[in-house]
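Figure caption, in words: inputs first, then the predicted bound structure.
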Amino acid sequence: MSLDAAPESLLAVCRLTDLVPERGAAALVDGEQVALFRMVDDEVLAVQQLDPYSGANVMSRGIVGTRGEAWTVASPMYKQVFDLRTGECLDTQGREPRRLRTWPVRCRDGVVLLARGPREG
Amino acid sequence: MPQEKDRPEEIDVQDQTPPDPADTTADRPRRLVVVGAGMVAHRLVEALLQRDTTGAFTVTVLGEEEHPPYDRVGLTSFFAGRDAEQLALGDPALWDDDRVDLVLGSRVTGLDRAARTVTTATGQVHRYDELVLATGSSAFVPPVAGADLPGVFVYRTLDDVARLQRWVRDRAEQHDRPLRGAVVGGGLLGLEAAGALQSMGVHSTVVEFAPRLMAVQVDEAGGHALQRIITRLGIEVRTSTATTAITAGPDGAVAAMTFSDGSSTDVDVVVVAAGIRPRDELARAAGLAVGPRGGLVVDDACRSEDPHVSAVGEVACIRGATLGLVAPGYTMAEILTDRLLGGQATFPGADTSTKLKLLGVDVASFGDAFAATPGALEVVYADPAAGVYKKLVLSDDAEVLLGGILVGDASAYASLRPMVGRRLGVDPAAFLLPEGAAAGPAGLELPDEAVVCSCNNVTAGAVRCAVSEQGACDLAAVKGCTRAGTSCGSCLPSVKKLMTTELEKSGLTVSRALCEHFEQTRAELFEIVRVTRLTTFSEIISRHGRGRGCDICKPVVASVLASLGGGHILAGEQAALQDTNDHVMANLQKDGSYSVVPRIPGGEVTAEGLIAIGEVARDFGLYTKITGGQRIDLFGVRLEQLPAVWRRLVAAGFESGHAYGKSLRTVKSCVGSTWCRYGVQDSVGLAVALELRYRGLRSPHKLKLGVSGCARECAEARGKDVGVIATEQGWNLYVGGNGGATPRHAQLLAADLDNDTLVRTVDRFLMYYVRTADRLQRTAAWLEELDGGLDHVREVVVEDALGIGADLEQAMAAHVDGYADEWAAVLADPEQLRKFTAFVNAPDHVDESLQYVPERGQIRPATPSERTGGAVLIAGAELEVRR
Ligand SMILES: Cc1cc2nc3c(=O)[nH]c(=O)nc-3n(C[C@H](O)[C@H](O)[C@H](O)COP(=O)(O)OP(=O)(O)OC[C@H]3O[C@@H](n4cnc5c(N)ncnc54)[C@H](O)[C@@H]3O)c2cc1C
Ligand code: SF4
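Bound structure (flavin-adenine dinucleotide present):
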């Protein structure tokens, strides 16, 4: 299903309707696991699926929410909270801060497109 | 004396010369020996170890009883199921301190002041530099013929009450009829004992020599009010009556009592609670002065005429009197600590104020309760119908509070007692009228030096200081800083009020907000959702919160909606509120795989059921383990395998076990009367019925139940939120237990219930908890936080004092009717099944990061080094996944 949308070096990952509002889903992008989150306004945000604290691939299964203005996800494993846009850890639960990688995401004609090549958030 | 350093701890020192007094100033720690390991000894040791920062003392405590110091004041709660461990005072770590040696089961029989040694009944000799007698009192048994018959008890120690309980149980088994009992003495202890007898189903009579009950604490009108209330509770009271003889039956055990008026009554058990005598025998034998009514005479520094011998607690005769209450004993312990460490503290005089709950009846007496002050005025409020009598004693100008008596409703005690000796400043009647008594009239402000906690001598100022300077911002912190409210607890309402006022003053509001999105507590949100009948998170947060929620408030709202009958936990928007366990209805494990637990009600499972579970485990290559809740946990299931696993389990007749939810987990049971030689009721049958009734119930935290078939308690039911233990007559219901990091034993809520009453009471209890507890608060913590604690819950769920019993039952009935297996529903819903995919863009791809190695014939997750180090890895089983 991974189609190359060459002009912008974007990768079509799935349909927007494959994602449930305010929940995450995992995707495989060039062999790497990515967590996609659909917000209430249908914006889609992408971070690494690997939870840097537990080492398990579970970020997509966390609870989506807000801290102030920021959209967040809480790790389902040890509850660290991350900014979904920047990847920054907002609540380290007493551990040293670690970030999540983020990917720019576009939505076109109901298709979710991920910019290739991970970028540090 | 360097040569003494090598001396063993305990030796025969008979031939040694007395230690040189100068020795006490030498550098080595001084030896403090405390005789008696009761309440006051405990306080002394606790205070001394805390304040002796230079290591001036080593302490040896010699206690005759087999138990470490326990809460004697709370002795009667033994009959409500509190055992020695739960009654133990303070932090048990105290006895691990290197500086202290607690020797139990060790009675001191000799004191040699010249040699400065004490000798125990077993011949051990302990040398002391300083000796403290904290031997308390013994029960006084009047010289009545037959007072030593089997079946006659005193009421002072844990062993006394354990013996009494055993006797009543054995007799009840022998005679197939309700037992009759009598209590000699109508004072505080007598009424405590009468309550204990009543709680064991013994029909009893209280016999008091004086013309009224509790003659020491209350006046005539108060005594009569008390008698009326107690008679109404089914206890017979005979005042102005002396017991002339106790007589035995054919088996040699107590059978009857005769009284001064010539009448007699049949009895199966007698408790003598006719007063106490100080245990001053050591002091007497050592030639030390004792008071006119006993007790080692001490000065205001708690020192006897021998400068190396002190006394504290009930054995001390201070200012010419012995004191039978714990608070003055604690004051003495504090004073002696200060003196031992070189301070100058002196005994300030005893506060003999008391507040008690006897048989559920409040009785309080404080200050000049009998209006002995010349010119004193009395203001009385009495409502005989309601069983209330209250009296305030005021100075001749009616301005200064001198004392008072409260019977039937002592809620004003906490605000009144600290005002003794002060101008009230408000109309005294305001304290006596039913409304507003507890909080005290508005505008009443305690001066800093007013003592709020008399057990621990904590002033209002100390509480304020704990809040403003030491940063305490909840009741637990204030208790920790000041010790206020850590003994009898009667001052807690005042302490709480002082704390809240102080917090508000310093601009801190007591934040009980759930998270940044909701100002409310879970209980408040529950009420809002219940009343407004809102059904979606979006509506709830937009009307009553802000933002879009988080991992704290979303699951709370989901739980509230589920408890209020919101349909399937994953229906519509609710799916987005659940944490991953509830979302995929399995338990997330450390590597990102899940475990699955099918429900096995009551732990009862057929051979076919076991085979079906075994086959699923084998076919999917899962690790299996038996849980503590008597069921089977299957580990290593990948997200996308969950529906296939459950299709097989559902086909074999299993349902979701809700191991993933903040909800009912299991009802553990023993095999009960069906198989067990000792069982008296069908514990498995009841456990299965309860588990089927409450399965799926969402709650503030996980809920565990247990049912045992007899008092041997093999199901460990008292370690559960709700524990049921079979009795000959029915079931005893315990609540508020848990295991885990802070284990708690459940406490008795109601006794000898039949099946219907039991279920109705559990219905109400669970629903009341679901409605009012905080997020992630187990029942034990909830009971502890709740104003009024277990008594309050008993009033609500057993006595229906709030009139919400029917409502709670109805809510539970709605839950029972609305129950459907969550997994069966998901399997039937293609929309729900979509989320069980490893990758949205590669549904057939297996997550390769999940890797396992064999161990003891099963799988376990590979460690990081095993992954990179080329160990033999097992990929997850490739069973075909049907969609
Ligand atoms: C049922 C009951 C209810 C009560 N209710 C209240 C109440 O509501 N409010 C209140 O203020 N007070 C109450 N009291 C009284 C309170 O318990 C006592 O005032 C308090 O325990 C006194 O403490 P103590 O350390 O002086 O004596 P204790 O607690 O009696 O301790 C003395 C210890 O010394 C041991 N001992 C004695 N002689 C020796 C020896 N020779 N060698 C070694 N050990 C020895 C004893 O075995 C005992 O364990 C109640 C008492 C009872 C029994
Ligand atoms: S609690 Fe009683 S009935 Fe149950 S197994 Fe133990 S002894 Fe038997």
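The longest strand of chain B covers residues 361-367.
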